[in-house]
Design goal:
- The protein contains eleven helices and nine strands.
- The protein has 306 residues and is α/β, with parallel strands linked by helices.
- The protein has one domain (23-304): 3-Layer(aba) Sandwich (Rossmann fold).
- It is globular and about 50 Å long.
Length: 306
């Protein structure tokens, strides 16, 4: 009996990873390529969440072809509107499919990380940065309202999710083949990831950039000190890429000035060529996902071009 129990436990342990990381293919005729979902991925750092993995039509999992990986925040907004919180989607599968078939970007899979009710805390870099910059750590309290979860969120991505993706799919796991993108605060946490994990990321893109406290115009000095963190930690421009764009609804406003301040830091740190830096302004009607969809090919080509 004891031998039977021991064998049963050993078999259970062997199959446990498959049980935990069970994948479900999303059946949707409108999706270009193939979309798989890891449901409620557990983590020791943050609350569980869904993770969608988009594979191009030419994906071959036998390992003869290796694929770059693009990690994207707000994963439920990327592929179809039914689960998007705005009922609009980025159309990321259509953009990737078209650019790949035209030979304008490299073979790439997309990992869409769903957000959680703690999105603001996960996507806003934490008070430790503020403290390092000689600011009173409570000066951004109005914006955070609680302890930031940004470091924990990035630990989930780089210590748990990335190893999972690299073990399950035919990926190029090196820094030169790993990219990240997000919109709004998703762009901010992507920039933070670039500075905190430069050995893991080749390039990042921030669409419709939103700086924290951007609605508090009387705190210009504080937020510029906050941005100064990135001046000190921007990685080697010879090895990295950074893309920003910002919505014209913010033009001449507080958020626009902060983006210009960040751009100055990038130029001063050697991010000045078309190969490693791009910062653009777009007109929009604050439709967010619908507007971002129109220009999505620009950051994708910048990050993933052959």
């Amino acid at each position: 009996m004891k031998l039977f129990i021991a064998i049963y436990v050993m078999l259970l342990l062997c199959f446990l990873p498959q049980i935990i990381w069970a994948q479900t293919q999303i059946q949707d005729a409108n999706i270009k390529g193939n979309l798989w979902r890891f449901e409620k991925v557990p983590s020791k750092f943050i609350v569980p969440r869904n993770v969608d993995v988009w594979l191009p039509e030419n994906y071959n999992g036998d390992g003869t072809v290796k694929y770059a990986v693009l990690y994207v925040h707000d994963g439920q907004n990327l592929f179809y509107p039914e689960v998007s919180f705005s009922k609009q989607e980025w159309g990321l599968d259509e953009a990737m499919d078209s650019l790949m078939k035209l030979g304008q970007i490299r073979n790439t899979i997309v990992v869409g990380i769903w957000n959680s009710p703690s999105r603001f805390l996960e996507y806003t870099p934490d008070n430790k940065i503020v403290k390092k910059d000689s600011l009173n750590k409570n000066q951004l309290k109005w914006d955070l309202n609680s302890q930031s979860l940004s470091d924990a969120y990035l630990q989930f991505i780089f210590e748990e999710l990335k190893p999972l993706i690299d073990s399950q799919f035919a990926t190029k796991a090196d820094m030169r083949s790993t990219f990240m993108m997000g919109a709004g605060l998703g762009g901010l946490i992507s920039l933070h990831a670039k500075c905190k994990y430069p050995d893991q990321l080749r390039g990042i893109a921030g669409i419709g950039m939103q700086w924290p406290a951007s609605y508090q115009e009387k705190r210009e000095v504080e937020i510029q000190n906050y941005i100064d963190y990135y001046r000190r930690y921007l990685p080697n421009p010879a090895l990295h890429k950074i893309y920003f764009d910002i919505d014209a609804s913010m033009r001449n406003g507080w958020n626009m000035r902060q983006q210009a301040y960040m751009d100055e830091h990038c130029y001063a740190n050697g991010y000045g060529s078309a190969k490693n830096f791009m910062s653009l302004i777009f007109d929009d009607n604050l439709k967010q996902e619908a507007e971002w969809r129109k220009r999505l090919s620009i950051p994708l080509q910048f990050l993933l071009k052959l």
